[in-house]
């Protein structure tokens, strides 16, 4: 079964994966010459036959969806890629055609110059948001382990949703005096550089989970090359692995447009959770930044960042932009899918979901003309934001949910947004949820590195 499954991935688009696949095939042939392996081979073939029958019976779509979500690598553009490449591969062609997601036209400003920020843009809800640096509890006396996310009580959590002058938990909570940091430690020089950034494009690879995909240089304007910080956060292991593959940072710590920033003392054992720190907390990591763009490592940036800010924020008068999920809009469906594909500990998912239901999370109603969002489930691999108080607050709140509950941020997005809105009925949070097909148009989608 393994070679067949790999075959499915191998046909996709990475030559590396394909090579791996070939190696695997050779290995099988080599092995077959050894009499002791014949029995194994027999079982593999039997299994493959059974597997084909299963596919024929239940339809490829089901199988395919399983792979797609489980691996989190076969996203829709890949589906298209598969159906093209499958002509030359031995793939069940017609069944692959079912789930296709295409990019759609994004009307970007046609300009060689940097777009100019509209004078009226920063007219968003104003308040002063501060962040908890050190908690007021005596952690060492009570034998409480200091945590990066702190120890927010439910009462503090409730309070934190108010869009008023206040101090909230937002990661980077230090331990008590004289004890090692709670994590996400950065080099002084990197920190100094990051402090200068006013517009940031950032991404991360922790735990060698992906390849390094450089932004398409010819699509990035000279202005952006000179004025936008492109930051790729990695851990040491990832850096070592990238270096072995020939991606070595130069004397300016850069690989192409990416400046590589090594994070040590990772705050969570769960690499996905660690990845949420740069994803959500760019306003903490880049204190001078006015705008930031987040890009999952599976995406290659294929559009100039200033044009993206113009398109998603300025033109829409939005302070936060994220795309909707390409198939799921209701958190109920998302929960089911997460469990079906064993994305996370089921008990933990249930705890989170029950908590949200008891706090009024509604089902998504597509027929409601006044629904506050086109979907309660985002495709959060691409986020554009202005660092306004409301946008920063939302980022902190969303991060706190991921810190408290599961790292599956698609489960907490809708709840966090709706609760923020409900708590502050007279204060607008200008969130623009755009179509997933737009995300496909401005980035190039890959799959994550095969484990
Ligand atoms: C909130 O903070 C701002 C800036 O620090 C200040 O000007 C304003 O008066 C404060 N508002 C309230 C209600 O305290
Ligand atoms: C990074 O990893 C390499 C290889 O495992 C090791 O030699 C080096 O000391 C590590 N550096 C840090 C800062 O941990
Ligand atoms: C799953 O989550 C529950 C509740 O958070 C926890 O008690 C349990 O130990 C977890 N199980 C595993 C296998 O991690």
Automatic annotation (TrEMBL):
**What domain of life?**
Eukaryota
Domain TOD1/MUCI70 glycosyltransferase-like, chain residue ranges per copy: 129-448
**Which controlled-vocabulary keywords does the entry list?**
Membrane, Transmembrane, Transmembrane helix
Annotated transmembrane regions: 40-64
> Which InterPro entries has this protein been placed in?
TOD1_MUCI70, TOD1_MUCI70_glycTrfase_dom
UniProt protein name = TOD1/MUCI70 glycosyltransferase-like domain-containing protein
